[in-house]
Amino acid sequence: MMKRRLGRSDIAVAPWCFGGNVFGWTADRDASFALLDAFVGAGFDFIDTADVYSRWVPGHVGGESETVIGDWLASRGGRDRIVLATKVGMGQPDRAGRLDRAHIESSIDGSLKRLRVDYVDLYQSHADDGDTPIEETLDAYARLVKAGKVRIIGASNFSADRLRTSLAISEARGLPRYETLQPEYNLSVRSGFEGAVQDLCVAEAVSVIPYFALASGFLTGKYRSEADFGKSTRGGNMGRHLNPRGLRILGALDAVSARRGASLAAVALAWLMAQPSVAAPIASATSLDQFRDLAAAASLDLSAGDRAELAAASAPA
């Protein structure tokens, strides 16, 4: 399987990143273990989680996903076969992100303990923190890299201006640079990333690992009317996608899917994999059937015509 380099680092990954938000939530421990076994068995290696997953579930406090992954790694071994990514800074009661030195240094130790590892390959700022100087955040990461707890760093939910400033400070002060960016990006949600952010990532060799790659399941074709919203715990969020444009997107996915003999999910992921600067879209599965649909994207070679048809149908208003 052809691997893709993360930024300017020496880390390369397979083109699909398993989203760990489902572990310990919609996928229990046994289901999570089976999915991770299948993922690695198929030649994939990139797993993304966060210290806040899955705090939104009643009774959860955050860290449940990391704990499941850690238990799986302890049971199966093979740490060196996995590129393990987690995130820090989200879930604070008073601000979007918290990236001060004290919080980063305490959070990494909690994540490493739950993951049952000595280091993470990719440690990411989960949300920007306008209250903490960028230099303080990057210096905290430099300490973690020097201590061997982190290999490279990434950002999530950053604007083009804040990412550009962070990269400039890294270069000027010899501090670790954000090698990856994790934005919301998919066929249904394009305008927030395409343009200034995408151009910056291409110019600065920042690899993109988009989250919500399937628009929380909308791009699987599962939700085609309001009557379908009750099909899953995420159905309540489908109203933002189910509109005339969304139906055009599903129509184009249906057409390409029929021509290629692939699922809508595989086609939607393959389209993302072909976009400039994208290294590995993040998508989750909660069953082995879903896993097989997503895994097929890595070997699905969409034609230029396929990609153009999908791009035209999903063009932002």
TrEMBL record:
The keyword Ribonucleoprotein does not apply. It comes from the Bacteria. One of its GO terms (molecular function) is oxidoreductase activity. Signal peptide: none annotated. One of its GO terms (cellular component) is cytosol. The keyword Oxidoreductase applies. Residues 17-312 form the NADP-dependent oxidoreductase domain. This is Aldo/keto reductase. CDD domains: AKR_AKR9C1 (cd19081). Gene3D superfamilies: NADP-dependent oxidoreductase domain. Pfam families: Aldo_ket_red. Keywords: Oxidoreductase.
